[in-house]
Amino acid sequence: MYNQINIIAPGGARAAELHQANSQDPLNTNGNTTAVLWGPYDPHQDKPVDGQLGVGKLTTPDLFGPLKGLGIINLKDQIDNGGLIYLVILTKDHPDGEMRGQLGAAEPPLVAG
Questions:
Q1: pTM of the full predicted structure?
Q2: CA 80, CA 105: separation in Å to the nearest integer?
Q3: Is 28 helix (H, G, I), strand (E, B) or coil?
Q4: What total of structural domains would you count in the chain?
Q5: For residue 38, is it within any domain?
Q6: Residue 52 lies in a domain
Q7: Residue-range definition of the domain harbouring residue 38
């Protein structure tokens, strides 16, 4: 599964992680880390970001916590159907997460032909 993270964070960022929320109340609960998409950056300072934070490819061995060994298809299913997966941006001042964004299914981009 390919990913691209775009944010504007003049104060910077330390890491970007995927977490799995509680299925009873996914928007209002915090969950366990399931994958690290970017970072961690220098533990003593954040990387200023104005645009692309990172691009990468997530594979089954990259998953841990509650998704360890379950495969990318399970992660995709939880994003597409359950709304349980969310992105957290960690910073020096907020090491448990400063920004949070729920992930959902997206249509593929249109390609001009």
A1: 0.80
A2: 4
A3: coil
A4: 1
A5: yes
A6: yes
A7: 1-17+25-56+91-104
